[in-house]
Amino acid sequence: MSAHAEAVHEHGDHGHHGPPPANRSSRLDPTTLGMFLFIASEAMLFGAFFTAYFFVRVVNPDAPDVWPPDPYEFPVFVASVNTAILVTSSFTIHWATQSVKRGDRNGLRAGLVLTILLGLAFLLTQALEYAHVGFNTGDGAFASVFFGLTGLHGAHVFVGLTLLTFAAVRAFRGHFSPDHYHGVEIPGIYWHFVDVMWIIVWAAVYLL
After folding, report:
1. Domain count along the chain
2. CA dihedral defined by 20, 25, 28, 33, rounded to 10 degrees?
3. How does pLDDT run across 182-201, given as a tens digit for each residue?
4. pTM, whole model, 2 decimals?
5. How far apart are CA 90 and CA 134, in angstroms?
6. Is the residue at 95 inside a domain?
7. Residue 177, strand partner residues
8. What CA–CA distance (Å, rounded) separates 80 from 112?
9. Would you give the DSSP letter of residue 19?
């Protein structure tokens, strides 16, 4: 066997197995880029729901002076409390992400656990709001788009909590390090998107 053939044979035995690494046309890591693209698609989904919501408001004969239609009222105070909860969770997930980059495992675990607890508090508060809001999906188009828009966001919070729970389990098992933290950073990016989207929902539905 020639020297070249032996080198190829040795490389095939001990070198890279499987398909070659993907070509990177962006400075972003492929998983991070994929999350940003997914978030862009989700933003368009929310855009469709916002379009339906504002259309219902425009065609309402009493709008913009009276919204929601009498005798219904939106629980602005409860929604504002939920906004404070979710904004606080953005700081805790940022703490977790920065902690793992510094090698602070205790900070990472504490940040993830606090974020999960705040997310659960948000969903519980939203469920209580639904139970006492005084109307349901059958009370006109305004109610349908209200539950549709806020419920869509609640579903995204649930997805974010699922991702954060997986990250927390891995964190307690010691899977992350300053050189390997994408399993925390990617859910963190998604969670920030959920937080920002709620601020938009809160302002558009409860304040405007």
Report:
1. 1
2. -90
3. 899 999 999 999 999 999 99
4. 0.82
5. 31
6. yes
7. 180
8. 23
9. S
